[in-house]
């Protein structure tokens, strides 16, 4: 037993940033900062010697000396960006400690060598940073509230960032050689252990969940928490307890690690690479299994939650499904939220006595039946719970300007969310709203709860389009205006609606629809609009939007620097058009027969990209009802790379005289069409970088089918 | 002898287009048109049979049937362009007769086959055109005066065009087989012949000439006649007579055609190809030389002017120079004008009795001592006179919108001017202002007069820049504004002058000057401005402008269609800066030592095109006086094709944070510079086609050298 003096000081649980008393806010923030900085330094006191700082705990991550310095440098970097400070404290040290945090992959080893500073140097550097941040908190001008755009957001970000590393460093220490660590009075594990309770399934009725934080929230949040996500969750069953070491042992003893059928492809690759035969923190010993904790090994506490990566958790579920005949799997993020709502446990994070969370009890897990939450145990705390859900951005997601790569690199379908927090998750980490995601082979203080459900919903797309052309077109169709030039597809549709007068508006065809904006705009006026493009990649953007997803893309600002953008139909008040559009991949020069009976056909920026424009124009009347209208808009940029010279419609001398594309259009379309009105130039702008744009005029003409 | 009835009707000599009586103008134009159309048709009556229309007179040009139809089709094509008519008369015939007029080269044979209409069909077609044009002249709305932009200009153009073909077709008939031609009462040659007079040299004192027609002139002119050219002409001597057949015989008999030393390279190539041994119209016969006229051969009239191409005339001069020891050559265009001025013969063309011109006397040449003009004979008329001058555009040259390829294809340094006209030159052809140029190997009714002079002036550049990048930059620097964006180099200089305040303005350096506009703009304010660019082709544009020449370039409108543009310093009120600039080719990353002691250095759109931008920035202070100012403007468009990734100044994450180019500039320049003022974006637009533009923002920053 420890005495009262041995216990670590109380650790604040987070902070309300909406106070209206600046002095009170300074006091609160100072305590929040100091306690975090202290607790982080005390964590490194569990290292037995200086060598422990420099030897890799695992080959995939930097040695601990990096993390010791990194959280301090992070303050400096972010404070520079919000101009709370003007100069670096130590450019050399800060260059060493700036980057390299990203979890590396087991299949992506990095053998770079670093010239690390000494532990004493880093301690001295941390003291300088501590003094600087403390002085800022005490003296820098402060207006309230502190929100997303506030310069002090960088201070809170620095603190929450250090709390994340408090946990991830504790994992590295747990993965270090036993000889490099030592017990510490502030980091004492739970001593209760015994046989595990039988697990059982609890029924959860169908219901809906709403996720996403509002920017007006008084609590700090990372970029990925903001926005909104609503979902209906079908009825399912969930295990009352987290899976214990004892329950997982059945899987190990059933040969689960050597049965490829239980493992998904990515899990099999991991297994082939690591030859794992049991959970990573399990230690086989002559007298049975033992468990590695942060600073010691103990006889296996069978009633503690097992700790696994996603692949192991998933394999357990597949084994259990096979043996039980039930659709066992991990919960989704929505289902975890539904559990929390159903159990009425949303506020659990703020109650110190109520969960093994926030370092409130132990420096380790504890029995899975210690903290009851409604019908369940450990809905939060003890260990993180893997989900089936790769992290994705909520509607309205936005990167934070001073940390644009906190989440975006993980929007790749390869980083799964863990929910609930562990015994060491503090501050933002411990909140139900927080959304941490890791590569699926990664280890944290993380285990799982399983569910039984036949349904597994499609996860919204998380991919940010980075292909230059596709992202430029996304912005061109759905993004911002530049040089005060109105949105081009919308301007064309406005022109068209004027020109159409009171002709029928049943079916319209947007040929060469690219990203599809005009297709949606036309659907404001027509019953059905078909968008066709040669490029399936472009079509994909319209399809995703019509499905209700956001179009996410990066825009180059300068060199490799990008900004992250996102647009949904609702942003453009086009949500009601989604049911009236259809998109197809197709070739305007060789269109399938079913595309016919249109009242209006638009061909915008198309004809000078066709390999046989005349072939298209000679047959387009077959698609159009008699009396229907054809609209052609083009900058007439003829290039042999798209259209053989012999197939240009104009832009050359013919019989000795200038023969423009408009002459060519009249000649080819004359057989079935009459021109309507005068040609007019419609401008458009395509953004290439923050400074560089294409600014083009597309000549719009209307042609009525008369024959 | 012919009777009065046999004589052709009187042939109007040209027309004053500035009358104020529309009915009188209609009468005059009708007579001008009808007489020209008649005379042209009568020319073809010298053909002996229909076969004569279809066999090539010379392989390098179309058969005569083409020319018979072509002048009629030309009316249709040009009247369509000025909208005096709306429809073609006969699309099939007009497609056949539209193009192919361009003289082809002896080294550029074209063996295309044509499906020619019958002579009767062409006659019927000509009758339709005649009726259409006559009706237009009688009935179309007419406001006076008829000038360059007037729709009726197309009518006058059609008539003058046919008068040109009257002459060129007469040459083809003269080159046709004798069996294919027959004498005609309207086309009777001169019958006077005898021994030639001795030629002698007449001294012309130095003087100046002014060439170029004004757009307000009441006479029709082709595009190349307009604008202005002033020149000082050094004293020279000129032969009193055109070179006669007799005088040329000495050269032939001296073996001139087989002596390569007398021939220029291009002349030697022509000689190798043709194996010519005497003038083209000379016919060797058993009883001595004979001369081919249009419809007959006659015994050699020794006192008529010899007819040669430029190469033969030039070889004669080189032979004569070699044998006389004097600098004998052909006159330049300026010298021919000086002759005319000196002899007071500018108005000679209007006087029917005064020259063998305008078909006023014969359908052939006549003796070289028949028509005296002051101290000379045949300053105009008899045969054309080759000059040393390749045709080039006068200052202010502009293409005519309905005939943009009348002259521009001949601005290639390979087409030499002929002056003075021949016995068949009528209307515009007969005017001293007219400027006809042909390939130097080409035959017309053309001979020469020689001059003796040590000087041969540089001919102004005639080249139209068609290279995409160079012509786009010419327009970018010196051309028009688009989207209301002010001229970029000028805007930068205005910004710079503001920023410089009252600092010294002795020497400025425009580094990466490209086409040089900012160099000239800076020279409004500095005593000396150095423009340096990596590209000698760009430098060439500034050098030409500083030399007083115009920058001529084509701009793509659409596909292959271009417009012709020209700019001089005077157009931009920069003519006074020419003496204060110097241009050098150089590498900003490795500048020669002499470029130093500047008060101001501008580097616009440069740094992101350098292969080692830091190397440039680290040493640029060495070029700048202490207290001097450096201006950098750049869109920061970093591309690995210009700058290796490792050498970018910014535009990437550094130590985990966004590091923009401005950060990079501060870091590199900090050692010697302090930033002045705030960065500002200066827009620029580069025109690619009539519809397509690059629209870019260049961030301008100022840096004062303080160390």
From TrEMBL, chains A, B:
Q: Which residues form a coiled coil?
A: none
Positions of the DinB-like domain: 33-168
Pathway linked to the protein: Amino-acid biosynthesis; ergothioneine biosynthesis
One of the record's GO molecular function terms: formylglycine-generating oxidase activity
* Keywords, in A-Z order: Iron, Oxidoreductase
List each copy of the Methyltransferase type domain by range: 509-630
Tell me one Pfam family matched here. Methyltransf_12
Q: Which residues form the Sulfatase-modifying factor enzyme-like domain?
A: 200-451
Q: How is this protein named in the record?
A: 5-histidylcysteine sulfoxide synthase/putative 4-mercaptohistidine N1-methyltranferase
InterPro entries, A to Z: CTDL_fold (IPR016187), DinB-like (IPR024775), Methyltransf_12 (IPR013217), OvoA_Cterm (IPR027625), OvoA_Nterm (IPR027577), SAM-dependent_MTases_sf (IPR029063), Sulfatase_Mod_Factor_Kinase (IPR051043), SUMF_dom (IPR005532)
């Amino acid at each position: 037993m420890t005495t009262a003096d041995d216990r670590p000081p109380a650790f604040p649980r987070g902070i309300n940033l909406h106070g209206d008393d600046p002095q009170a806010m300074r006091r609160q923030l100072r305590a929040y900062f100091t306690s975090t900085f202290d607790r982080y330094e005390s964590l490194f006191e569990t290292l037995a010697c200086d060598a422990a700082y420099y030897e890799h705990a695992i080959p995939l991550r930097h040695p601990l000396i990096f993390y010791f310095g990194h959280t301090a440098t992070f303050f400096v970097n972010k404070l520079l960006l919000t101009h709370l400070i003007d100069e670096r404290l130590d450019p050399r040290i800060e260059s060493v400690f700036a980057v390299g945090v990203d979890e590396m992959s087991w299949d992506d080893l990095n053998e770079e060598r670093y010239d690390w500073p000494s532990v004493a140097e880093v301690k001295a550097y941390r003291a300088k940073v501590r003094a600087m941040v403390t002085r800022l908190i005490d003296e820098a001008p402060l207006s309230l509230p502190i929100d997303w755009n506030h310069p002090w957001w960088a201070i809170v970000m620095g603190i929450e960032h250090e709390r994340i590393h408090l946990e991830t460093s504790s994992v590295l220490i747990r993965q270090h050689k036993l000889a490099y660590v030592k017990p510490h009075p502030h980091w004492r594990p739970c001593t209760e252990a015994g046989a595990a309770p039988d697990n059982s399934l609890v029924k959860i009725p169908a219901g809906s969940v709403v996720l996403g934080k509002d920017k007006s929230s008084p609590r700090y949040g990372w970029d990925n928490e903001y926005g909104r996500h609503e979902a209906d969750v079908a009825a399912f069953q969930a295990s009352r307890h987290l899976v214990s070491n004892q329950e997982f042992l059945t899987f190990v003893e059933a040969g689960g690690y050597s049965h490829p059928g239980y493992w998904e492809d990515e899990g099999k690759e991991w297994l082939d690479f690591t030859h794992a035969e049991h959970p990573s923190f399990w230690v086989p010993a002559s007298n049975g299994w033992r468990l590695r904790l942060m600073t010691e090994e103990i006889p296996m506490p069978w009633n503690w939650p097992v700790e696994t990566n996603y692949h192991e958790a998933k394999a357990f579920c597949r084994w259990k499904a096979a043996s039980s005949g039930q659709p066992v799997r991990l919960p989704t993020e929505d289902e975890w939220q539904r559990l929390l709502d159903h159990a009425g446990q949303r506020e659990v994070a703020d109650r110190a006595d109520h969960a093994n969370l926030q370092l409130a009890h132990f420096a380790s897990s504890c029995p899975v039946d210690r903290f009851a939450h409604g019908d369940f145990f450990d809905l939060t705390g003890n260990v993180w719970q893997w989900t089936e859900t790769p992290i994705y951005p909520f509607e309205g997601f936005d990167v934070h300007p001073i940390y644009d790569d906190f989440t975006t690199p993980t929007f790749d379908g390869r980083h799964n969310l863990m929910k609930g927090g562990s015994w060491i998750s503090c501050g933002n980490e411990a909140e139900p709203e927080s959304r941490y995601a890791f590569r699926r082979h990664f280890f944290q203080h993380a285990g799982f709860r399983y569910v039984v459900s036949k349904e597994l919903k499609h996860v919204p797309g998380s991919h940010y389009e980075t292909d230059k052309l596709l992202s430029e077109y996304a912005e061109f169709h759905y993004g911002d205006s530049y040089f005060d030039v109105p949105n081009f597809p919308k301007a064309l549709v406005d022109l068209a609606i004027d020109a159409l007068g009171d002709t029928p508006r049943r079916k319209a065809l947007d040929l060469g629809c690219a990203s599809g904006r005009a297709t949606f705009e036309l659907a404001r006026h027509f019953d059905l609009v078909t968008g066709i493009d040669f490029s399936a990649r472009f079509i994909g953007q319209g399809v995703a939007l019509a499905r209700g997803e956001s179009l996410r893309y990066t825009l180059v600002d300068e060199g490799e620097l990008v900004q992250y953008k996102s647009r949904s139909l609702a942003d453009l008040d086009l949500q009601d058009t989604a049911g009236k559009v259809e998109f197809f991949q197709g070739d305007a020069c060789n269109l399938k027969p079913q595309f016919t009976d249109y009242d209006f056909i638009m061909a915008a920026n198309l004809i000078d990209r066709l390999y046989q424009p005349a072939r298209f124009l000679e047959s387009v009347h077959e698609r159009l009802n008699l009396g229907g209208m054809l609209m052609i808009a083009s900058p007439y940029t003829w290039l042999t790379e798209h259209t053989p010279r012999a197939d240009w419609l104009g832009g050359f001398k013919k019989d000795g005289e200038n023969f423009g594309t408009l002459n060519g259009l009249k000649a080819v379309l004359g057989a079935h069409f009459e021109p309507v009105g005068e040609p007019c130039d419609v401008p458009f702008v395509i953004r290439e970088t923050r400074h560089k744009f294409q600014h083009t005029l597309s000549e719009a003409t209307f042609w009525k089918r008369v024959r």
